[in-house]
Amino acid sequence: MEPQTLPAEPPPSAATTAQLIESILFVASEPVTIAQLAKVLEIVPDAVEAALDDLHGVSGARGIRVQRVEDRVQLVSAPEAAAVIERFLGVHANTRLSAAALEVLGIIAYRQPITRAQIEGVRGVDCGGVLRALLSRELICETGRLEAVGRPILYATTAEFLHQFGLTSLRDLPPVEVPGEQ
């Protein structure tokens, strides 16, 4: 008796590709690049993009979303489920950012890269503790030093900031008019 051979698997269709991507993103412990998805699925990046568009379209009515930051993609819970998820995970309200932290984060997001002195010039108060808290949460990072006396540290937002606020890039920030600036 001859050994049986399995028929060759047909190439995945667009829907199947979307399902495979969703499965990969579900088990991935961190965001996955488009190139990684294309390589593992043995398809071109444009096909990954098309499948992600399909997946994004169907996830709007579900409890998960496809979130993209630049060329990295991951599954996240739907924003409208945040309160229930926090209760389930036992996250307490004191883990939220303070008003001062949100203010400093906003200043950094819109004016980055920016120094501590420049932030304090906008706020009018010391922000050392707030900067340490934002750094520890990895919402901001040090991006270098200003070419000036004392070479102060420059701060900018991180990919984690984009992730936490559901943004794909800084271009997604709403426009802000600052009184006295033209």
- Biggest beta sheet summary: 3 strands, antiparallel
What does the overall shape look like? Answer: elongated
Specify the oligomeric state: single chain
Which structural class do the helices and strands define?
alpha+beta
Q: Number of helical segments?
A: 8
- Which strands sit side by side, in order, in the main sheet? 1-3-2
Total strands: the figure is 6
Distance separating the two termini: 85 Å
Order of helices and strands: HEHHEEHHEHHEEH
Mean pLDDT: 85
Low-pLDDT windows of residues: none
- Percent of residues in beta strands? 5-15%
Helix content: 40-55%
* Rg computed from alpha carbons, rounded to a whole number of angstroms: 22 Å
Structure notes:
By secondary structure, the protein is an alpha+beta fold. 45% of the residues lie in helices and 15% in strands. The chain has eight helices and six strands, in the order αβααββααβααββα. The protein has helices spanning 14-27, 34-41, 45-59, 82-89, 99-111, 116-123, 128-136, 159-164, and strands spanning 32-33, 64-69, 72-77, 114-115, 140-145, 153-157. It has a three-stranded antiparallel beta sheet with strand order 1-3-2. β2 and β3 form a beta hairpin. α1 (14-27) crosses α3, α2 crosses α3 (45-59) and α5 (99-111) crosses α7 (128-136). The longest helix is centred in the N-terminal third of the chain and has 15 residues, at 45-59. The protein is elongated, with a radius of gyration of 22 Å. It starts with 13 loop residues before the first helix and ends in an 18-residue tail after the last helix. The mean pLDDT is 85.
